[in-house]
Design a protein that fits this description.
This protein is mainly alpha-helical and 141 residues long. It has helices spanning 4-17, 22-36, 49-64, 69-86, 93-108, 114-136. It has a single domain (4-136), classed as Orthogonal Bundle (Globin-like). It is globular, with a radius of gyration of 15 Å. Bound molecules: protoporphyrin IX containing FE.
């Protein structure tokens, strides 16, 4: 569980981050991801502009609701099912988490610190854990 202080840290740092153009954030994030794991590139569309915006919108949505996980569990589950459809493997979640952390660190520059790293790691892990679990046991339709 994230502490109240960690939730505040994530919310405050994301507010700073949002001043950066989402296209730039997306570009940096996926460049980090594909530089570390070139084989993931082919899972994504050729034109990534929409993906950049989706990524930033999704993080904003989750961060806004961080104190109330019950509100987002249904959305995360639905997202997890989509990811099973994309062929995403549970072992790939770590790579995405690392790319996110590096991107935040690069974007926040001197505002980055170990407490922020810890708070964002918990935030991502919480969401990724729900995704992975939901991906294993799809909701009965
Ligand atoms: C907590 C972790 C993650 C979150 C919050 C997340 C979020 C999203 C969102 C919001 C979309 C757009 C869905 C839509 O179009 O409706 C998406 C698409 C996608 N994600 Fe993720 N994702 C996560 C992890 C991963 C991982 C680990 C991979 C593995 C490489 C991955 C690969 C993809 C792919 C291939 C697409 C579809 C691209 C396309 O064809 O448009 N995602 N993701």
């Amino acid at each position: 569980m994230m502490t109240r202080e960690e939730i505040l840290l994530v919310k405050r740092s994301w507010r700073i981050f949002q001043q950066i153009n989402p296209l730039l954030v997306g570009d940096v994030f996926y460049s980090n991801l594909f530089a570390a794991h070139p084989r993931l590139r082919k899972m994504f569309p050729k034109d990534m502009a929409q993906q950049y915006q989706k990524l930033v919108d999704m993080i904003s949505y989750m961060v806004q609701r961080l104190g109330e996980p019950a509100l987002v569990v249904a959305e995360i589950r639905a997202l997890a099912e989509k990811h099973v459809g994309y062929g995403v493997k549970t072992s790939q979640y770590d790579a995405v988490g690392k790319a996110l952390l590096v991107t935040l660190q690069q974007g926040l520059g001197t505002d980055w610190n170990p407490a922020l790293a810890e708070a964002w790691t918990k935030c991502y892990t919480m969401i990724a854990d729900i995704m992975v679990e939901a991906g294993k046991a799809p909701i009965a339709k």
